[in-house]
Design goal:
alpha/beta, Rossmann fold, Rna Polymerase Sigma Factor, Chain: A, 2 domains, six-stranded parallel sheet, five-stranded mixed sheet, 13 helices, about 45% helix, binds magnesium ion
Length: about 375
């Protein structure tokens, strides 16, 4: 492309959005801010669209749809959390836009719908593990892939096997050893539900069966993920734990941006560790696989129940160790539904209603 790519950012005030603005500012010959959404007016940026407000407000939603389907817009970075990201993502894909996707919930809830709307061009992942796998797959034939290995830092509690998870405080759970992220994904890292969601995300993004996607605990967070091929070769992508790198990869594809982050120096890499996941203590990955395999709206239930349980934990209303059992309870009670957009949104609503009364009782 001879002119800079016009980039719209959904969710410019979150952690990913702010780092994306930084990547765009530093690469004016290749990337141009076309528009953004933010909860309140905070940015000093100029762009064609500066949209303030909250998803769900009809006026806000209509303006977002106009922005992401504008013929001048080339690429949409989706970085608003949760189910609210689903409709604008589908609208942009149907208008033929490239998508850089940071919101994994979109693929967890509605992977088949989203990948169908994306068609041949696919979706550019921003999640660091999926960016790693994506980069390892460039130029490879899909039938030569044996399995994917998603790495996990393990969060703050993995390395403390004797810690009583019933007594973990919000402050302890928010203290992530490697990555600086928003509170929701930081708690998901501590429960390992983040990896459960990422297994489902990888399954849809790369069209790989669930049982060919493994999780490995790698506390140093330097190897961002691994692809194993049928000949026994393994390819990994390494980098500092800095989200500006996967953001730059997604925004500039198939190009690369100079000095997006400082490179890892190999001499600094003493003692990279990889450990099996303890599924007894951290059952979230198993639960996510089961929900994805069963389908019929269950991944949307998994996602919504987890969101509700995490926000109850952050509000001090639910024990850390009750987060995953709460998700399990919602999945067990869900009668099953369909797989269309309305069905997925209904499964999301059902879960919030169901847990609203249950968590409400716990709060009382
Ligand atoms: Mg990740």
């Amino acid at each position: 492309m001879t002119r800079p790519a016009n980039v719209a950012i959904l969710g410019a005030t979150g952690s990913i959005g702010r780092q994306a603005l930084d990547v765009i500012d530093r690469n004016p010959s290749r990337l141009k801010l076309f528009g953004l959404t933010e909860g309140k007016r905070t940015s000093a940026h100029s762009a064609e669209y500066l949209i303030q407000g909250q998803a769900g407000d009809p006026d806000f939603d209509a303006r977002v749809e106009t922005m992401v389907t504008d013929p001048r817009c080339d690429l949409v970075l989706v970085a608003i959390p949760g189910a609210r990201a689903l409709r604008p993502t589908l609208a942009a894909l149907k208008a033929g836009k490239e998508i850089a996707l940071a919101t994994k919930e979109v693929l967890v809830m509605a992977g088949p719908l989203v990948m169908k709307a994306a068609g041949e061009r696919g979706v550019r992942p921003v999640d660091s593990e999926h960016s790693a796998i994506w980069q390892c797959l460039w130029g490879e034939q899909r039938e030569n892939v044996r399995r994917l290995v998603i790495t996990a830092s393990g969060g703050p509690f993995w390395s403390q096997p004797d810690l009583d998870l019933d007594r973990v405080t919000v402050e302890q759970a928010l203290n992530h050893p490697r990555w600086s992220m928003g509170p929701k994904v930081t708690i998901d890292s501590a429960t390992l539900m983040n990896k459960g969601l990422e297994v489902i995300e990888a399954h849809h993004l790369f069209d790989i069966p669930l049982d060919q996607i493994a999780v490995s605990i790698h506390p140093q967070s330097v190897v961002h993920s691994v692809v194993e091929f049928i000949d026994g070769s393994l390819k990994a992508q390494l980098g500092r734990p800095d989200m500006r790198l996967p953001i730059a990869v997604a925004l500039a594809y198939p190009d690369r941006l100079p000095d997006a982050v400082p490179p890892v120096r190999l001499e600094e890499l003493t003692g990279l560790e990889f450990h099996a996941l303890d599924e007894q203590r951290f059952p979230a990955v198993r639960l996510a696989r089961e929900a994805a395999a069963a389908g019929q709206g269950r991944p949307a239930v998994l996602n919504a129940a987890n969101e509700e349980a995490v926000s109850a934990f952050l509000a001090g209303e639910l024990a850390f160790s009750a987060i995953i059992p709460t998700v399990e309870r919602a999945l067990a009670a869900f009668p099953g539904g369909g797989e269309d957009l309305d069905d997925v949104l209904e499964a999301d609503r059902w879960t919030r209603d169901y847990l609203g009364s249950k968590l409400g009782r716990l709060r009382a």
